[in-house]
Amino acid sequence: MHFGAQRIDLILENKLMTTLGLQLYTVREQLGKDFTGTLRDVSRAGYAAVEGGPGRGMTPADYKALCEELGLAPIATGSGLEGLEGDLSKTLERAAASGARYIMLGWVPPKRRKTSADWAALARDMNQWGRAARDSGLIFQYHNHDIEFVPVDGSTGLEIILSETDPDLVKFEVDVGWVTWAGGQPAELLMRMGRDRVRIIHLKDCHVAPSKAWTEVGTGALDLAGVAAACRELEVEYAMIEQDTCILPPIESIAISLANAKRAFGAMG
Q1: CA 81, CA 43: separation in Å to the nearest integer?
Q2: Contact, 184 vs 227, CB < 8 A?
Q3: ∠245-199-151 over CA atoms, to 5°?
Q4: Which residues contact 141 (CB under 8 A, 6 or more apart)?
Q5: Are 195 and 169 spatial neighbours (Cβ–Cβ below 8 Å)?
Q6: Cβ atoms of 99 and 68 closer than 8 Å
């Protein structure tokens, strides 16, 4: 056992500081080759929590046990529309069995977001999924990309979701990298949404000039200090580091991102 249940208990008791974790999409290729070994590398890099789910041939309970053995709190997971619409009860059951407290919708295909009416219909569905999640002891979140900032029928997807969803049922897992990519100010957005809406963020950085590209946290255009200050003010629980593409080996990239994030957040990690 590397860190074990005692470390996870400390994480779950952490009420005032933002815990730094890893969105496992960052190391997806490594997980596909050696799931257990990659999770061990994530733990050794100093991460305290992860967002993801079981590997191939692994049950949610297996995944939860492995994370706990390695001292990683499996605090959050995701689902596509197919899971939420196809078998919501089973999707929520699997999320809970994996140890997650949060379940995220992370992508909406283009055909489902062409008009303001499409976004409003999606918001109504999210209220239903959020209520079902709450009844199952989970918290439902919506994760943004840059598409939510594109004008549509005099508004944006972001504004429609904010106005048409119940903050008690639908939280935002704000991806500050995508906000930056879209030309927005992530710290300002976090403060506008407030603590009732934001409990987890995706901590991601990017270059925006001369061309856009993902990079390690603290090495790009992200207002890292501003985001950290907003998270402290809002008592955001988790900042999940993510990098969609890495030039360096991903394990090296996540170590750089964690070191820079720790300096900015002064957080448990």
Answers
A1: 30
A2: no
A3: 65
A4: 76, 102, 103, 104, 105, 170, 171, 172, 173, 199, 200
A5: no
A6: yes
Q: How far apart are CA 105 and CA 79, in angstroms?
A: 5
- Residue listed under structure tokens 């950290």: 228
Show the DSSP H helices in 87-185 as ranges: 88-97, 116-135, 157-164, 176-181
Return the axis-axis angle of helices 250-265 and 35-44, rounded to nearest 10°: 30
This prediction has a pTM of 0.92
| Cβ proximity of 74 and 64 under 8 Å | yes
What are the φ and ψ backbone dihedral angles of 155, each rounded to 5 degrees?
-140, -160
- The answer to whether 107 and 139 are in contact (CB under 8 A) is no
The residue with tokens 């008791």 is 13
Specify the amino acid at residue 9.
Answer: D
Q: How confident is the model at residue 267 (pLDDT cuts 50, 70, 90)?
A: low
Residues 17-60 pLDDT 10s: 899 999 999 999 999 999 999 999 999 999 999 999 999 999 99
Q: 140 - beta bridge partners?
A: 103, 170
pLDDT, one tens digit per residue, over 151-188 is: 999 999 999 999 999 999 999 999 999 999 999 999 99
Q: Give the separation between CA 94 and CA 125, rounded to whole angstroms.
A: 20
**Sequence-separated (6 or more) residues with CB below 8 Å from residue 49:** 11, 19, 20, 21, 22, 72, 73, 74, 75, 76, 238, 240
Q: Which of 237, 85, 115, 120 is nearest to 171 (CA)?
A: 237
Do residues 214 and 206 make contact, with C-beta atoms less than 8 angstroms apart? yes
Are the beta carbons of 141 and 105 closer than 8 angstroms?
yes
